[in-house]
Design brief:
- The structure is a single chain.
- This protein has 386 residues and is an alpha/beta fold.
- It folds into two domains: 241 residues, Type I PLP-dependent aspartate aminotransferase-like (Major domain) (Aspartate Aminotransferase, domain 2, 3-Layer(aba) Sandwich); 128 residues, Aspartate Aminotransferase, domain 1 (Alpha-Beta Complex).
- Helix content is 37%, strand content 15%.
- The chain is built from 13 helices and 15 strands.
- It has a seven-stranded mixed sheet, sandwiched between helices. Strands 7-6-13 form a three-stranded antiparallel sheet, with no helix packed on it.
- Helix 4 links the parallel strand 2 and strand 3.
- Helix 2 packs parallel to helix 8 and helix 9 packs parallel to helix 13.
- The radius of gyration is 21 Å and the shape is globular.
- The structure holds pyridoxal-5'-phosphate (PLP).
- The site of pyridoxal-5'-phosphate has 14 residues, from helix 3 and helix 4.
Length: 386
């Protein structure tokens, strides 16, 4: 019997999740309705946020956050060079320009010194990314932002369940807004889905308005007198970013399982750490700053490909033959043709280049069992040194 294929990440769905979805399909509301605020309430409780606004994916969460922050043409937003393209694209959606900060070569996390060096008259916001689930130095980022009155939007697509200096990521203690993704590889899934958390009442109102075509539905907010109960007003341009009741029901069910998922991810990370200590030319990515507690979204390792005389493409292909899936997180965003075309480059980003050259994500997800972890490490050792 051949071994089952181990992807780098995947969802964990059980009967309780399936029941929650089926029950919603039999109910009155497939979108809007009670399942949406129910999910938002559960999420708020988990992350200690004052408001959580559910949206249709993590990219929309970033887009809505940029729109609510009032970022627009002429504005610069500092984004790490190592992240998923969505962390930068959101700035473009609202007409601003991302400016790419360098990262620590061993952790991949945004370098506060690099952020400081990129500040200009046009800088409006910073989007730190808690890469791999590990919080960035939020104290340093918050200090830079406070001195210049900048907005901070945490991209926490990887970091549901992480904390920094005792603050759960999402309570926005160090920032204005925090965004999440519920794509199947993330900590919890709704299929597609996302959310923005904030402690700011005015931002929460704006986020709900952006999510719903830019509509205002309460009389206190109207510019014109209301002619009757059918009335709503569009005062700004918004989008349809709503998350359906079906997705939200799955999200609430998944959130009830989050603590178990996180405990399993921590155990897997510990096992990898122990086993990899004896594999030459491989080391786990470095821990984050002091006080950072990771949620272990991904399990990337840094490999000295030159040292073992194999290319990354070769290693990935041979691991795939051994039924082990891996991925590279991420291709530096400023090296993407779209951004090169706009004048961006890898110049001044040696940390990002060094991280990208060595990184490879090994399988990490809640349903991965100890024997799978052992098999991954054995396969990696064999491919690199066999
Ligand atoms: C997944 C992800 C996103 C986008 O989330 P989607 O739900 O896929 O739109 C944004 N930023 C980071 C860092 C991500 O990993």
């Amino acid at each position: 019997m051949s071994d089952t294929f181990l992807p780098y990440g995947r969802q964990s769905i059980d009967e309780s999740d399936i029941q929650a979805v089926v029950e919603t399909l039999r109910s009155e509301y497939l979108t809007t309705g009670p399942k949406v605020p129910e999910f938002e309430r559960a999420l708020k409780q988990h992350i200690g946020a004052r408001h959580a606004v559910a949206v249709d994916n993590g990219t929309s969460a970033l887009h809505a956050a940029c729109a609510a922050a009032g970022i627009g043409p002429g504005d610069e937003v500092i984004v790490p060079a190592i992240t998923f393209v969505a962390s930068a694209n959101c700035v473009r959606y609202v007409g601003g320009e991302p400016v790419f900060a360098d990262v620590d070569p061993d952790s991949g996390l945004i370098s506060p010194a690099s952020v400081e060096a990129l500040l200009s008259e046009r800088t409006r916001a910073i989007i730190p990314v808690h890469l791999n689930g590990c919080p960035v130095d939020l104290e340093a980022i918050a200090a830079i932002a406070r001195a210049r009155d900048l907005i901070v939007i945490e991209d926490a697509a990887h970091a549901l369940g992480a904390s920094f200096k005792g603050h759960p990521i999402g309570d926005s203690f160090y920032s204005n807004m925090t965004t999440y993704s519920f794509h199947p590889v993330k900590h919890i899934t709704t299929g597609e889905g996302g959310a923005v958390a904030t402690h700011d009442d005015a931002l929460a109102d704006k986020l709900r308005c952006v999510r719903d075509h830019g509509l205002t539905r309460t009389e206190e907010g109207f510019i014109n007198p209301s002619p009757g109960p059918w009335y709503y007003e569009q005062q700004v341009l918004g989008h349809n970013m709503r998350l359906s009741a079906i997705h939200c029901a799955l999200g609430t069910s998944q959130l009830a399982r989050l603590e178990g998922f996180l405990a399993r991810r921590r155990a897997i990370a510990a096992r990898y750490g122990e086993l990899l200590a004896s594999v030459e030319h491989v080391k786990p990515v470095a821990d984050g700053p002091e006080g950072a507690s990771s949620a272990y979204h991904l399990y990337p390792v840094l490999i000295d490909f030159k040292g073992c005389g194999k290319s990354r493409a070769e290693v990935m292909a041979r691991l795939r033959d051994l039924r082990v899936g891996t991925q590279v997180h991420y291709i530096p965003v400023p090296s993407q043709p779209y951004y090169v075309e706009r004048g961006h480059s890898m110049e001044g980003l040696p940390g990002a280049a060094a991280y990208y050259a060595r990184v490879l994500s090994l399988p990490m997800y809640a349903d991965l069992i100890d024997e799978d972890v052992d098999r991954v490490v054995k396969a990696l050792d064999k491919v690199l040194h066999g």
